[in-house]
């Protein structure tokens, strides 16, 4: 359905708002931000037509009832995440918005091509820095930046990694720039989470908006567990005909334990902890009721530091002694490979476009967000002079921690961060305050704009595959730019449309 004229769209919203009280021009004001559903003139974007038509038939009470049903479903399934610093409890259901975010096919093709390009280049980079280190010798990326990164693992030097696929599961975070074009905000290459919420959101959305879902022509994401299992098995298939894959979790107290158990169940793979493992003669086994069974591939959701107390942190009780020796001997595969975190270090991130050109002789399809390296004196001076306009991040932090959002911080907070920057400038980067796009969300019975980002999931083994869907993370507080679930953000389903007459 083509976009209607501005006056017609606004009048339609006014009629819907006056009769149903959910979507009104007075309430829904994306202001200067790019909005996923509405064009600047107020017209509904074509790929949202089916959803908009369905929403026009629902009263606020009906929408509220559907939201309540969704939340009850999540609660019964145990779909939870830890919200640190909460007043009453830290374990809650993942906040989920009822209304899906929709991406047309043409936009997705560019996203998919850009993510495949990016993961290929990052795998080349990791193979190089743990091998011949040509990119460092050629001065493309500073040596001290790589060797000084907290997640660089010298123990990985010279080790064989199947298919040179260091990054087996990647969750890159994308945002739209001021023109509505997608850019990469950061790469998550260590133990990225969130895919279980993508799958759970899809299951809920298919029930909530069944007619609109079918009319829109949405590409399925339900095959992700099968694709993940195939990717993991491909890492050992050259020498083991039917590799045994396990999911390694830190345990029930981990904030993403639900996801670990969920993926293990869907893949039909055992969920194990370090205490369930035995290492004997550089082979890794799991304890079963029928005795020891050899393991070939470990999809680990445990950070590098904790996987083996003999090699990394000696006080770790989450891993198993001798695991890294078995990995070094080539008798077990660990996915993602230890040491991948150096490639998603926020200072290394600034060099990814150059990394892509170096290894692939191509320009980056998806650009980076402008980034200032505080380790450079001139850039540090600029950051210190503009703290009220910038977002400052620790290079090795994740989950929204260790950062300052300058425009929303107090002067005291900015002063305190300035001291941190002066004391340890190499530990920080800065970026302009990101202008996240907005999408319609159901908030207290009304449909209002909230800021969103996008986390697609990329699998890399014997080939690179991008799941035709993503986790859309939502900043549920009005005006907030913090989308991380660990800090009270939420999520919503993401509909990627197939080619055809559905806004492609």
From TrEMBL:
<dbReference type="Pfam" id="PF14403">
    <property type="entry name" value="CP_ATPgrasp_2"/>
</dbReference>
<protein>
    <submittedName>
        <fullName>Circularly permuted type 2 ATP-grasp protein</fullName>
    </submittedName>
</protein>
<dbReference type="InterPro" id="IPR025841">
    <property type="entry name" value="CP_ATPgrasp_2"/>
</dbReference>
<dbReference type="InterPro" id="IPR016450">
    <property type="entry name" value="UCP005522"/>
</dbReference>
<feature type="region of interest" description="Disordered">
    <location>
        <begin position="485"/>
        <end position="504"/>
    </location>
</feature>
<dbReference type="InterPro" id="IPR051680">
    <property type="entry name" value="ATP-dep_Glu-Cys_Ligase-2"/>
</dbReference>
<feature type="domain" description="Circularly permuted ATP-grasp type 2">
    <location>
        <begin position="100"/>
        <end position="475"/>
    </location>
</feature>
């Amino acid at each position: 359905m083509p976009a209607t004229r501005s006056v017609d769209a606004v009048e339609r919203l006014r009629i819907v708002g006056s009769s149903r009280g959910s979507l009104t021009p007075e309430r829904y004001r994306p202001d200067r931000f790019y909005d996923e559903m509405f064009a600047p003139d107020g017209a509904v974007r074509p790929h949202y037509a089916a959803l908009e038509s369905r929403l026009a038939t629902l009263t606020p009470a009906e929408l509220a009832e559907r939201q309540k049903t969704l939340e009850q479903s999540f609660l019964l399934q145990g779909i939870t995440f830890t919200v640190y610093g909460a007043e009453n409890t830290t374990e809650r259901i993942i906040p989920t918005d009822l209304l899906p975010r929709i991406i047309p096919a043409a936009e997705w093709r560019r996203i998919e091509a850009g993510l495949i390009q990016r993961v290929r280049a990052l795998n080349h980079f990791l193979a190089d820095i743990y091998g011949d280190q040509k990119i460092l010798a050629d001065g493309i990326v500073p040596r001290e930046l790589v060797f000084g990164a907290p997640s660089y693992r010298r123990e990985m030097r010279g080790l064989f990694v199947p298919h040179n696929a260091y990054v087996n599961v990647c969750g890159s975070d994308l945002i739209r720039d001021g023109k509505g074009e997608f850019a990469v905000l950061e790469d998550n290459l260590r133990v990225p989470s969130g895919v279980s919420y993508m799958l759970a959101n899809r299951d809920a959305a298919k029930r909530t908006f069944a007619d609109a879902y079918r009319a829109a022509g949405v590409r399925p994401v339900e095959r992700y567990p099968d694709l993940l299992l195939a990717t993991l098995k491909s890492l050992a298939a050259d020498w083991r005909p039917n590799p045994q894959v396990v999911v390694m979790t830190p345990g029930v107290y981990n904030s993403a334990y639900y996801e670990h158990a969920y993926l293990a169940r869907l893949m039909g793979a055992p969920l194990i902890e370090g205490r369930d493992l035995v290492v004997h003669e550089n082979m890794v086994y799991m304890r079963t009721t029928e005795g020891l069974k050899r393991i070939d591939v470990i999809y680990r959701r445990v950070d590098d530091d904790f996987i083996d107390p003999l090699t990394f942190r000696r006080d770790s009780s989450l891993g198993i002694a001798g695991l890294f020796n078995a990995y070094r001997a080539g008798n077990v595969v660990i996915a993602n490979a230890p040491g991948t975190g150096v490639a998603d270090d926020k200072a290394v991130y600034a060099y990814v476009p150059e990394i892509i050109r170096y290894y692939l002789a191509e320009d980056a399809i998806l650009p980076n967000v402008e980034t200032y390296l505080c380790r450079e004196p001139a850039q540090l001076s600029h950051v210190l002079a503009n703290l009220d306009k910038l977002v400052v991040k620790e290079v090795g932090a994740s989950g929204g921690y260790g950062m300052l959002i300058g425009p929303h911080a107090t002067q005291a907070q900015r002063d305190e961060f300035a001291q941190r920057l002066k004391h340890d400038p190499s530990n920080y980067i800065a970026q302009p305050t990101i202008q996240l796009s907005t999408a319609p969300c159901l908030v207290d019975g009304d449909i209002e704009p909230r800021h969103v980002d996008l986390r697609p999931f990329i699998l890399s083994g014997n080939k690179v595959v991008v799941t035709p869907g993503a986790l859309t993370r939502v900043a549920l507080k009005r005006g907030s730019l913090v989308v991380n679930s660990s800090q009270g953000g939420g999520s919503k389903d993401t509909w990627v449309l197939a080619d055809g007459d559905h806004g492609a």
